[in-house]
Amino acid sequence: MPAEQPTILATSGGFKVGRRTNLEFHKLVHYAVELSGAGKPRLCHLGTANGDQRSFNADLDEAGRLAGWEVSHLNLFTMPPTADIAGFLLEHDVVWAGGGSVANLLAVWEVHDVGQAMRRAWEAGVVLGGVSAGSICWHVGGATDSFGPELRVVANGLALLPYGNGVHYDTEEQRRPTIHAAVASGVLPLTYCTDDGAGLLYRGTELVEAVSERRSGGAYVVRRDGSSATAQEESLDIRRL
Fold it and tell me: Which of 45, 92, 139, 168 is catalytic?
């Protein structure tokens, strides 16, 4: 059952340490599944940003069994499992992109034309989501440590959403000033940002709410003030899941 509108949940969270397993799906991933309306959820995980680590895939398989969901993986290393990536994605209710190197993710996705496949899935009502690199990728771009400890800005995201994106806003001290500088200079457009545990829900290309799986932490919008050529930040209302 597809979502009623094209839907993206872009986050700085989604996983937690399990009680009897290495990982469990946290409230943000459960919310993504809820948004899909699926009775027997089928979730596709993409671990491209972290090199398609099979051990992590196994942890997510275990988390899926615990949640009662069917979890599969679109591994692009060393080759995709199918020549029809769009068709593969369309077999699922939720697509969740994991964290890691967003620069590498975007490069590998471009080689395999994953961006067009994602657009087809999104327009068909498959809920797209992800954490960190898996959040930035849906936007125009954002700040990343893909190239080293000094953050740089990427601006070659899929741009399904016409905004910039900031992640881990409260836990990595260089995230906020890097985003502010990029917005002030015009490298990034209006930019939405999340603290750890927070997520941004978009219907179509409109932000409709900010949510969090934690009791603390927030979400923000950063705009460029044309008269002063500076970045102005505003906190968003946030709903605790």
Answer: 168
Cβ contact 161:8 at 8 Å: yes
Q: Which is nearest to 14 in space by CA: 168, 234, 149?
A: 168
What is the pLDDT at residue 84?
Answer: 98
Specify whether 132 is catalytic: yes
The H or E element containing residue 108 is helix 102-111
- The answer to whether residue 168 is catalytic is yes
DSSP assigned state of 77: S
Give residue-wise pLDDT tens across range 169-194. Answer: 999 999 999 999 999 999 999 999 99
Q: Which listed residue (132, 135, 146, 212) is catalytic?
A: 132
